Amino acid sequence: MEQQEIIRHIRLVSRMMDQINYGIVYVDREKRIQVCNDKAKGFTGIMFDAPFSHDEGVISEGDIVIIADNSVGEDDGGLCSEDLQSLNIHDGGISQGDILLAVGVYRNAEIEPAYKYVHQHHLAMPVRLQENYLGFKICAEVDTERRITAITVNDVVHELEFFSSVGNIVVVDGKYGNIKFFQAKGYSVRNEDLANILRGQPFQSKGGTSYEIDVTGRPYLDFFDESPLTEKMFRALEGEPISVRNTIQEINKRPFICTILTAEEEETGRIFGVMLLIQAVDSLEALVEEKNRLIEQLENVGNKETRRQDFHVPEEAVRSFVGNSSKAEETKYLAYKASQNRFNTLITGESGTGKSILARAIHRMGMPEAPFVEVNCNAIAPSLFESELFGYVGGAFTGARSEGKKGFFEEADGGTIFLDEIGDIPLTIQVKLLHVLQNKIIYKVGSSKPVKVDVRVIAATNQNLEEEVRRGTFRQDLYYRINVFQIQIPPLRERQSDLYLLINQILETTCRRYGLPPKKFSSDALKVMLAYNWPGNVRELENVVERAAMLCDSNIIYSEYLSVGSGDTPTSMKELLAREEARILESTLIRCNGDKNRAMKELGMSRSVFYDRLKQYGQE
Ligand SMILES: Nc1ncnc2c1ncn2[C@@H]1O[C@H](COP(=O)(O)OP(=O)(O)OP(=O)(O)O)[C@@H](O)[C@H]1O
Fold it and tell me: pTM to 2 decimals?
């Protein structure tokens, strides 16, 4: 097919796609848009419905400017303090990321502005600025819960919703009092961001109903931002094999499910252009919003005590997860919350931080009677994944059991499947897993009969999945699905105060398990353990404690028995002697039941030297 014929064909298809809510953009080799249907324009803000209208123009001295910006410096054209000075706002306290609500007169040093700003993360309620300003009834508002910014002037509301950030602005004509400019979707492609308007950038007119720009033949980059997706499209134009199939990508700062296809000349394979297919992600957005709402709710409940009262965390909740540092308490609290609903939950944390323990606890607290199936994804050979997860029917492949086999999902029906090391699932299986999570249906290997499953997924990983998504080894859509509720377990080095508890608990359990008499660590051994930073976290701690308990015959375990840190390798004779001295001091004190005078006499030491040494070795 010729290039023109292709374009004619795509135009025809694009109208049909409008009917089924599918956006399509076709870009030729010169990176110019040849087709862009109404849906694509609507999704990306090139076209929008405006209930009001205004003429083209530019901001001028004396105009009244109202701002509702949910994150200063982001998606507002890089709003900075110089821009705000044009409204007579000279406030060094306003910083990037703040919510800013303001009203002021453009380039008039005499009239005081009214404004407020807040640091975003402290917010639970909408922030509002209400003023009777120079005879205008003004209200500017940011509602993070509903993700809407609204500017009301004399009861006329100008709303703009946002996904992550937006800078909403309305300009009232200082001479005539009518609305001269209002912000609307797609502002950045028109260079009508808040800061650009304040810097004097002219704005286009907006019609009363549907406002549209003709994009045919115009450069793609005039309307779509430079983004990883744009880069992929351009690379595809150069003939690079690019795979974007129903994955979530951002277009003009909003996420969509996108697919890139190339149009090629049949005989030569020469690339004519690329097609971008765009679908809305409403359901995913809802999931992400729900997650954010929950997290925000958690962040706003205040201190631990109020939290516990407000949410009734049972005293014995998550007992298997040892720790009473504030971070451990928080982890247990989140686990408890996760157990009270069936959101897919992602547990992250370094190796050995207790992710499996927590997964089991979440299940046990929520539905103890239901099945719990634990799958270690890095122990399954890639070729076996599908049959292990979804099962197979008899005769599905050579070596298959004649009666077939249930997969892990079927076994977990009605309960929980714990996918440990989810980052190790091959990409081909990730697609299938996504399908199962979305449709709650599995297909066994060798069968096309759908089997319904009702399974709650808890996944765990010690990888940085966001990084894996960026590198293309983990699907973004799957990441969104499993990451509805995330619990990050902090490493042991960030919760020192849990160490004592863990050490004692592990030692006690070890002695019981192996029939050893009860033992205690000497204070120098404890010191060594506290100073070490435990790269292997609790698992390493367990190994070290168990080994020391087995090796040491006495009921006091000294640092020599520890296979970590300085316990292993004293660096000098002085250190070795000091350690020996501390050990003798301690064992004498224990033998004398803590009676210092008796220990002092037994050791034949003078009072001052004895107390000096106790101080030196922290045994006072
Ligand atoms: N908070 C804790 N309280 C008690 N034991 C713990 C705790 N955290 C970890 N452990 C113990 O440490 C060991 C490792 O824990 P677990 O297997 O749950 O870690 P993980 O984060 O899943 O590790 P990996 O990423 O390597 O799979 C287990 O034996 C577990 O009992």
Answer: 0.49
